[in-house]
Amino acid sequence: MRGAITHPPDLLAAHSVGTATASAPDDAIVAARLRETGLVIVDGLFGRSAVLAFAARFMTVVPHRDSDPDRLTTIRHISRHGDRPGFAGFGSGELAAHTEGSAVPVPPRLMLLGCERDADLGGECLLTDGRAVHADLQTRCPDAVAMLSGPRTVYFGAGNGHLSQVFTAYPGGRVSVRLRQDGLARWSPLVSPYVPYLREAVARHQHTVRLSPGQAYLLDNRRWLHARTEFRGERRFLRALGEPRFSLAEGFTVAPETGGVLPTSKEAA
Hints:
Blueprint: H1 11-15, E1 16-19, H2 27-36, E2 39-43, H3 48-58, E3 59-62, E4 73-76, E5 95-98, E6 110-117, E7 121-122, E8 125-129, H4 130-140, H5 142-148, E9 154-156, E10 162-164, E11 167-170, E12 174-177, E13 185-187, H6 195-204, E14 206-209, E15 216-220, E16 224-228, E17 231-232, E18 236-244, E19 252-253
Parallel strand pairs: 1-2
Antiparallel strand pairs: 2-15, 3-18, 4-18, 5-16, 6-15, 6-18, 7-17, 8-14, 8-16, 9-10, 9-13, 11-12, 12-19
Helix pairs in contact: 4-5, 4-6
């Protein structure tokens, strides 16, 4: 993660849909952007009510283990949680690229993360498009894609976790990604040799984004991986998870230049 750089074009500019109001941005435009690229960035979300209202326009917001009564989760440093497995988001250290809810059978499809207060130092968001990672591996190491797509090759989570795979193929040549890189990811010996290739590909395609208060990103959680740099100060973000209120095909289309179409995974059949 320390090698992450900001890739042109600037992610904030490339995926911005402007300032949120009661009628803007247009819901159809946001839905179209999410279908096409899996990511939008919005301004003007100041306060919990604004974040929740915007989230509710595009998803059915679902509660989380750590969410507050309004179903939003306040992401901040909590000293008693920082060193606990599975609670790194509540620490102040760096957070490796991952899928939110990787340890549940069906991770939430959408995630909205809004900045309420930025850190004094560090705390940048790191975003990686799983489609770019898949294409990179298909070009550089096709065997890695094949092995990382093997069913039941990695266990994510603790005792109540989920046995799955990094890449899941769906009918029509679409693929989704699921990943975590902490101590709660236990890899099959057959897959372990390819994990370094995966991590290198994730780092190569990582974008650094510093959100200011009122800014937020909304992403397809089964396409984009998110992470964070270590920070100092009272950094505070608000997160909403849920299922889309609009049609959204599972996964992403495989980059045509790679020619890497996988057989449909049993999990997706």
